[in-house]
Amino acid sequence: MACSIVQFCYFQDLQAARDFLFPHLREETPSGAVRRDPSKSNWEDDGWGAWEETEPQEPEEEGNTCKTQKTSWLQDCVLSLSPTNDLMVIARGQKAVFLVPKWKYSDKGKEEMQFAVGWSGSLNVEEGERVTSALCIPLASQKRSSTGRPDWTCIVVGFTSGYVRFYTENGVLLLAQLLNEDPVLQLKCRTYEIPRHPGVTEQNEELSILYPVAIVTIDGFSLFQSLRACRNQVAKAAASGNENIQPPPLAYKKWGLQDIDTIIDHASIGIMTLSPFDQMKTASNIGGFNAAIKNSPPAMSQYITVGSNPFTGFFYALEGSTQPLLSHVALAVASKLTSALFNAASGWLGWKSKHEEEAVQKQKPKVEPATPLAVRFGLPDSRRHGESICLSPCNTLAAVTDDFGRVILLDVARGIAIRMWKGYRDAQIGWIQIVEDLHERVPEKADFSPFGNTQGPSRVAQFLVIYAPRRGILEVWSTQQGPRVGAFNVGKHCRLLYPGYKIMGLNNVTSQSWQPQTYQICLVDPVSGSVKTVNVPFHLALSDKKCERAKDMHLVKKLASLLKTRPPNLDSVETQIKELILDIKYPATKKQALESILASERLPFSCLRNITQTLMDTLKNQELESIDEGLLQFCANKLKLLHLYESVSQLNSLDFHSDTPFSDNDLAVLLRLDEKELLKLQALLEKYKEEKTRTATVRFSDDKDGVLPVKTFLEYLEYEKDVINIKKISEEEYVALGSFFFWKCLHGESSTEDMCHTLESAGLSPQLLLSLLLSVWLSKEKDILDKPQSVCCLHTMLSLLSKMKVAIDETWDSQSVSPWWQQMRTACIQSENNGAALLSAHVGHSVAAQISNNMTEKTFSQTVLGADSEALTDSWEALSLDTEYWKLLLKQLEDCLILQTLLHSKANSPASKPSSLQAEPLPRLSVKKLLAGGKGGIADSVAKWIFKQDFSPEVLKLANKERDAENPDEPKEGINRGLPEVSEVDMNLGAIPDLLHLAYKQFPCSLELDVLHAHCCWEYVVQWNKDPEEARFFVRSIEHLKHILNAHVQNGIALMMWNTFLVKRFSAATYLMDKVGKSPKDRLCRRDVGMSDTAMTSFLGSCLDLLQTLMEADVSRDEMQAPVLDTEDAWLTVEGPISIVELALEQKHVHYPLVEHHSVLCSVLYAVMRFALKTVKPLSLFDSKGKNAFFKDLTSIQLLPSGEMDPNFISVRQQFLLKVVSAAVQAQHSVVKDKESSEEAPSAPFGKDQDWPVLAVDLAHHLQVSEDVIRRHYVGELYNYGVDHLGEEAILQVHDREVLASQLLVLTGQRLAHALLHTQTREGMELLARLPPTLCTWLKAMNPQDLQNTEVPIATTAKLVNKVIELLPENHGQYSLALHLIEAVEAISTPSL
User: Fold this and answer.
1) How many C-beta atoms surround the C-beta of residue 907 within 10 A?
2) What's the longest Cα–Cα distance across the chain?
């Protein structure tokens, strides 16, 4: 209970204020530098007169000045904070920033208050004037519902021109007053405070303004009314734009201070009345011994100034000696047409002509002369110059700082210095007033009490707060002559703010209604960007000799140090602790000491019990009226908990072993199961245990199960009204407490009956015990499954708990469900340890049936006696209702167990490295999660497991056939459709097909094959979307999509995939490829589409598959009905999100031509990427209608190209398709030496490649290009690459054989030209000479370089010539040339033979 410094607010962005006030610093500061290290400053209360003396620096000094300002820019600012903490003003020169607090969440997620910029702008009206002082004054609300609360905050600003201006929180000018033509040095405010006792004079509210030679005081009531009127006027003007009512004038007094050289700061003490002695003394000093004395002492206003000659001056102004002056107020009205801030002189005449406005601006308001006021006395010290003065809250003391680094404490009434602190240069000072809390007084005998009784007036203590920026320390001193009670290291760049006032506009009635939270003192730390306040306990004001609290705190510290040491002798330590705690006087401190003792880890249990018992006995022996009931009750509660801990520990330490043998037959009887059901349950649990053991993480054996330190035990429990409750603790702590009570019992190592009796008698409710028991059972699943005998122990424990008095209410309605069993079922439903939950549910069902039977027998006996034939029926109905809930739960838990076993299973690790997405662990299942997961929750969890294992869709088919369980090798031949390596994968599956088959059998509806494929398809595409580089995920998703048999589901899933994940990337890829005119490079693909070029190629291929599947599904859906989605009986109550399949069935029909249109574009893009084609702009192949239809909703009707296409488009399309065919043949048949090793791998990086020649012909059909041209080109390319046998097959599909024959004739000539002209052999030259001149000329005209494969045997060429002869009609012009070629080929081939 010492001093503390607490931060209650933060700055959201202090850099924004600095950038606005110091633009030159913003330009030179790197972005973000200030945020990382907020501007450091040495905030200090400079004399405000320094503003006038600022002169332009010499050019060579500008660099140094700017460098200094970067670290201490706040030194040059005027700062003010509202006492209600709802506004802060930072001003410099002509600019100001208004900061308002807002509640926001911090980075750690904690809600905190942050100062954010609410308004910023320029405040100057006259040229050259600067801000010298500012105040934020909260004004009280006049509404009856919020009496005493702040309504709004007025900002008062003083300028070097002598003007004082008043603004709203939004920077709207309300009033402007010129009271003196000298600069304003300081503004101070005093608000109403209720007098603490009748002897204190009630003070009026006022605003005091200090000028170099004058003080102006404005009456608070007059100011409050004027500001309210101005604010209302501004609101009306903003609404209507034509109202202008001048507010009532301000009443103020102006005193000209004389006989003093320099004034820097001032304090207005208020009205004071002298005692008769002081009155006579003052009259004698002024008028001599003959002075006349009035009957009643006059009331005077006292002012104190600090400066030089005298260092401190005391002024007294007699009340009534001068009449208040009435000011001429300039009112500024905000309207929609004019700015909120403009010249005060012209603002209230805002609708006059420009000429009149200029005339008014030049005419300054009249300045009233000051009433002279001479200094009565002072503290003369010619060398000392005062810098600031701060008045205490009770108006009796004032602290003054000077240029010698001293802080001087003044007695205001006597006018003398009573204390001085040295070594506080540039100090900033403030006050804290603390009111005593009467409840903290010691309720003991009057002899020992420092107060005598607990009633009486609250005492008030004053503390002086001094901040020394040179040392970076904040100190709190007790006044007047008290010690230093607190010190904090706060840094060298803070600023101490002490408003010294509260809310203006209150009176003795309204100030008692509602007290807003006000901070007496605040420390602004620009380094950490926080605002802090200081909390000081009242007892620190009391002297050490008389303060029982200080003595108690000393004893507590001594006790804490004693508890930290490791004592050699526990008995002596116990004695010392008893003496210390009995010496403490305050009950609250005694309680604190006992809590620290009980929280100690080093004291044994016996020591804690003895100390608590001793304190308890001592309290009971005191007189009845001096006993603190709270402390007595606290001790009694802790003692009861210690006795409970002792009893449980003794029971756990006894050597208890049950000798009863345990067999499977006993277990079956206990759980009310027949032999077949028990075997099924054991088989399920065995499978579950095997699979869980394989995937479980390493767990070291914990020998501390069932052991709990007494310190922890006391922390977990609390005793209230003879009932023990558990505090809010974590799940692990809850299990630890339950283990302490029940772990030994569940192992048969402790007496179950004794433990239940002990816990019940201690005050623990059966419901709480059941919750603890189940938490232990469900969390220790591994140990329980390894020891079946624990089921018997659980049965016994549950039976005993159920027989407790308030466990099962015998009067509960027979038609409703028992809350006791519902609590147990809820725990099983929420548990993720399904094996333990299933066992506990069987035990609960058995015990519930047993108790119900007992109740039935009891009812039956009463029925026989009472001859009531209907009672038995009612009893059986109640039994059947509760039993149905148990049966439902058992079925749900069994299903969940089978599903969890499947999800635990894992195939042998695949050869390929799994993705990081596949390495993420699956969440554990519980019945509650499955019920909340919606209709698709079960299939979704299995789909996540399939994704993690990366199984082929064929594996799901395998497990769906019952014969696979008997002979899993049989179907391997027929499963190679899309995945040749399935047989290899299947060999490594282990028990997974059996588990899958069991899951299918358990969930015939939820895991129906189409539903499962749909969820798998969606899961894969979701994961692919997270990491588009994993193209195989998208390929696998399309595989699952193709395996969906129902066209309605297939159509919906494909459409959802397209709209959700694909169309944006697809459109981005299209525009990118159209922009670059070729297959884009990797960098561009990553930038625009978000994936590499390789992944984008696969992406486009999969998109093509999806669009083709979508078209097939659209055709097939008319031939089949939509599926009916059923749910298993045990899971009819599922709630949660709608399933993927249900969403798919809600999708609209697609517009087939539009899908086909996109499919054509996708084929074009895929071809460009697959073969790295150049000079191809995909969108140039389509007209404007075609382009506009792209990327629209596939279910919408779009205007598509129809009729004859422009020949230019057809020509471009034909050129593109010919390129594709050439590239496809080249990729497949280009002759390279290492053909086998290097060509086949890249041809299909992700699965089976397209049949490009067939696809090109299909595209030609859609693009209105002649299909025969494409086929002829394909044949020509095949012969060009020397694949004549494939060319002969392709010829059969060509319709215009004559044109084809002409093309092949040229190719034959190229082959012969190469053989005769380019080999340059002697035989070749001789043969060439024998050929006919026509043929020879034709051969020389051929260019063999166009041939892709020149190594074709001459016999193959001979076949080609014969084929040409077959295709050419005899009347063709080149027929004779073909005949010559036959002779030439025969002549060439003859020598070789």
Assistant:
1) 17
2) 164
